[in-house]
Amino acid sequence: MPNIFLILQVVFASILIVMILMQPKGTGFARSWGSSGSSFTRRGLEKVTFRATFIVSAAFIIVSILQLVF
């Protein structure tokens, strides 16, 4: 059973790294301090990637906790 959690943890970590690297540059605090007049809302694929990153990170944390328990 612990081997399954370890494999899932490696898979989720790899997916999480790729999803973070796919995030566009200039978002977050850096964009809010700039003088850009663009909208701060995420749309389309950027929105899907942003939400999926949180879902994958939550799955990674859950699997990590389950690995500690079992």
From TrEMBL:
GO terms for biological process: protein secretion. The keyword Transmembrane applies. GO terms for cellular component: plasma membrane. It is found in: Cell membrane; Membrane. It is a multi-pass membrane protein. InterPro entries: SecG. The keyword Signal does not apply. GO terms for molecular function: protein-transporting ATPase activity. Involved in protein export. Participates in an early event of protein translocation. Belongs to the SecG family. This is Protein-export membrane protein SecG.
